Amino acid sequence: MPSLKSQIETSEIVVGLDIGTTKVSAVVGEVDADGISILGVGNVPCRGLRKGVVSNIDWTTRSIAEAVESAQTIAGVEIRTVYAGVSGSHIRCQQSDGVAAISGREVTPQDVERVLEGARAIPIDADRQILHVLPHEFIVDNQDGIRDPVGMSGVRLGVRVNLVTAACSPVQNVVRCAERCGLTVADVVLEPLASAGACLSEDEKEIGVAVIDIGGGTTDVLLFVDGGIGHVSVIPVGGNNVTADIAAGLRTPMGEAERLKRNWGCALGRMVAEDDEIGGPGVGGHPARTVPRRLLGDIIEPRVGEIFAVIRARLEETGLLEQLSAGAVLTGGGVLMEGMSEFAEEILGMPVRLGLPVGVRGITQLVAGPQFATGVGLVQYGATALAGARVREASAAPATVEAEPVAEPAAEGKRRPGARLIGWLRAAF
Ligand SMILES: Nc1ncnc2c1ncn2[C@@H]1O[C@H](COP(=O)(O)OP(=O)(O)OP(=O)(O)O)[C@@H](O)[C@H]1O
Ligand SMILES: [Mg+2]
After folding, report:
1. Predicted confidence band at 405 (pLDDT cuts at 50, 70, 90)?
2. Distance of alpha carbon 81 from the chain centroid
3. How far apart are the C-alpha atoms of 177 and 55, rounded to whole Å?
4. Is the per-residue pLDDT at 387 higher than 80?
5. 289, 378, 303: which is closest to 337 by C-alpha?
6. Residue 218 Cβ < 6 Å to ligand 1
7. Strand ranges inside 184-313, DSSP E
8. Band of the pLDDT at 282, cuts 50, 70, 90?
9. Average of pLDDT values for 388-415?
10. What pTM was computed for the model?
11. Ligand 1 pocket: which of 17, 19, 22, 63 to mutate (most atoms within 8 A of CB)
12. CATH architecture label of 244-305
């Protein structure tokens, strides 16, 4: 096995594949000891999904192939392996506990793996699979609320986790589409988990925050409380519902309704001036016409209000509303419409900010919008997974490996690249 140092010194390419209801984005990142550099992005429309779930394998495969091709051209690298996103209302989240004996010695990373294995050993339906085991807190003997138990002493290590499960078939379809393009899927990742990783700060996670990713077909809600994931759910509504309402209300084709929404849409009717007018096309041979912008707002507002009301109800159901001291972070392409955060603040009754992907270098302008939060988050997830694998390799390898305790503070000049990589990844998530 190559040494930790040699592995980390060679930068690695990590690709996030966000297969969304309206578009496929392939985000290419280069990971080295200093972090992630965005090298390129391929972004193409996709009509192969309904409400976050693949409904047409051929169309989805074609969009993935195009997105990957375009990302390869821009980044100048060959893409073989991807971290793919998955979403849809089949996603569920449930709590579970695990316990492992440690007999008075220090907790090792292997103990942590063991206790997490125990927490995932619960019966689930045959047609479902576990996507993630997300630790909420560790407990060493009677001390709870521990984030990282490695190095602590005790006789008993416990963990409380959130298990994210998904129906097998939508996950398999995502993998199948990617494989049809000749890609290997390194892991399948819950999309809002990726989005949260890309746009939340450590402080927000610590004091409690809701990430709300409003895409085309789904609205994903993920809550952080006490620094851990408290809840995940996927609501099958999104920006496409707004577009469909505009198409029906103005009797115009979906494509035109989408254009009107993007150019003149406003979530709050009262933010639009009375005399604002927009040009609309003629339909079915009728001549082109002008529409008051207010009318568009009057169509959009009830639908967006309904989406935020459903989110509010979902937050109340979790019983965690009071713990969201940092409020909500809105991301996903659906939040690009004017007035979204103001409207959200009114209905959710908490501070709201827009969440853009952060924490990456390179050609960041390619991934600057909220619609790229998932794609960038997938790259960050992949980079963390890679770093975790390096740590495990290092701790499993014989003494010749130049590993050092990751958490040990070291002078910057003496620090090895591996420790730095883990350091910033820990800070990033
Ligand atoms: N400038 C804009 N103004 C208003 N809405 C916009 C704008 N740009 C994108 N959208 C909307 O954002 C939605 C797409 O967002 P996003 O790209 O995050 O979705 P997706 O990832 O394809 O779908 P999902 O996550 O639901 O599977 C569409 O409904 C689109 O109309
Ligand atoms: Mg999305």
Report:
1. very low
2. 18
3. 11
4. yes
5. 303
6. yes
7. 184-190, 209-214, 219-225, 228-235, 277-280, 289-292
8. low
9. 52
10. 0.89
11. 22
12. 2-Layer Sandwich (3.30)
